[in-house]
Amino acid sequence: MRPLGLLGGTFDPIHYGHLRLAEEAREALDLAEVRWIPAGQPPHRLVPRVDAAHRLAMVRQAVAGNPAFAVDDAETLSTAPSYTVTTLERLRAAAGDRPLVLLMGADAFLGLAAWHRWRDLFALAHLGVASRPGFALSSDELPAELADVCADRLGRNPDALRAAPAGRVVEFDMTPLAISASLLRARLATGQSVRYLLPDPVREYIDQHHLY
Ligand code: ATP
Questions:
Q1: What is the pTM of this model?
Q2: All domains of the chain, ordered by start, with CATH?
């Protein structure tokens, strides 16, 4: 069975960095599908600028038309804090033995040891880690406890993802795009253009609803 990719994030707002991450992961890791999981109340970072319903709507607009992309709205519909481990437990129960690959950029991976029950993630899914400008993934850059847990899991061979339902960490290179949601929020706040940094329907949605 081809693995199912999972991409969580605040998507505040969604941008082409996220979309290329999902698309390039799908190709590089031979994923059957990428499921987008916008966070409701992320506990591990600042409260999003825009509420969950708007962030979900923007994700839906951005991924519409790609048959390999689907949206999981469970976190945005829940009032409980969004923990990736809880979401993975739910998805694992539905997936049986199918490989699941939790996708993330290098910055998110470097901060993994701060996530709720992070050591449990490896029993539930693989990790697919994309390069991101400004974040080095070499093993001497990894926080010590993360390096320890990942020592026997890290690699670059996507075939490893099919050999088991969970437990590997596969790095892949994506087109470097130094786009971030923070950069977009800063530009929007000062009236600068964000055109060509995110999809047009998302830009129109932001204008229409006077977000940011
Ligand atoms: P912010 O600037 O608000 O921190 P962000 O742009 O990093 O936001 P998130 O919603 O926090 O967006 O990110 C969701 C996931 O997408 C994370 O795993 C992050 O590493 C990854 N990601 C976001 N932008 C890029 C990018 N330009 N290149 C690679 N990965 C990215």
A1: 0.96
A2: 4-176 (3.40.50.620)
